[in-house]
């Protein structure tokens, strides 16, 4: 009997009720169903006096989920989707993402499409789209203090108040550069439509194997977003005497001291999205962000003399 999984946002009553209904439906169709909340993929925050405070990437997998599962279903918004991939990407389980939140940029369908979607899922009538993820690590000397798996982005900035900082950044084996800005964003192609977009970075289609570096409010006309191969790791040294904060996917992170360094690299794990129709990224941009909509001036109906 095949085993499948459900991950849901237990803070949303709709997601809770739909999860229970889905579990019963799948069980009646002959599946063994394991259910878990998205809270297991939430990242914790380390403290300056207790910096080594994290769960290793491979240890976020919830109990009873394994590589044999043909698919799992996620019920929630974008935050739940991000959390679910942190939990299940190391197992390579494809996820059908169902929007019970607001924007739902990362979700595949809405609740009113659920009956048809489940039928397609059971019949194997779907495609799998793989998207790259990023490994984020905080190092102090040779000691790993904190790490996380990221589908969107890593942000490094000053706290508690926004102010100018200096960052020494090395991409691959290229010469290091100094950037003065309020913060630094390094994103995947999926993350190019998240915080990086708000910071002025370009949109990158999900199939392009790149990372993107975007300064937040840079203090130079020459400091602009940079797109480069995701085969090249990134090392960031905080070239400032002040403590900073590192945040991954807008969820959790840790403090970064002047003697630390942040190391970023392409993860060996991919986020596998179940697509019920051929992936069409421009359609999502149009529907969710309004990109490419026609702007047509309509003539006035008032007769002029």
Automatic annotation (TrEMBL):
Localisation: Cytoplasm
Matches recorded under Pfam families: NAD_kinase, NAD_kinase_C
Keyword NADP included in the entry's annotation: yes
Primary residence: cytoplasm
Cofactor(s) listed: a divalent metal cation
Gene3D superfamilies: Probable inorganic polyphosphate/atp-NAD kinase, domain 1, Probable inorganic polyphosphate/atp-NAD kinase, domain 2
Catalytic reaction list: NAD(+) + ATP = ADP + NADP(+) + H(+)
Annotated NAD(+) binding sites: 78-79, 152-153, 182, 193-198, 251
UniProt-annotated catalytic positions: 78
Disulfide bond recorded as keyword: no
Enzyme Commission number, as recorded: 2.7.1.23
Keywords recorded for this protein, A-Z: ATP-binding, Cytoplasm, Kinase, NAD, NADP, Nucleotide-binding, Transferase
GO molecular function list: NAD+ kinase activity
Top-tier EC class: transferase
Family, per entry: Belongs to the NAD kinase family.
Function in brief: Involved in the regulation of the intracellular balance of NAD and NADP, and is a key enzyme in the biosynthesis of NADP. Catalyzes specifically the phosphorylation on 2'-hydroxyl of the adenosine moiety of NAD to yield NADP.
UniProt name for this protein: NAD kinase
Originating gene: nadK
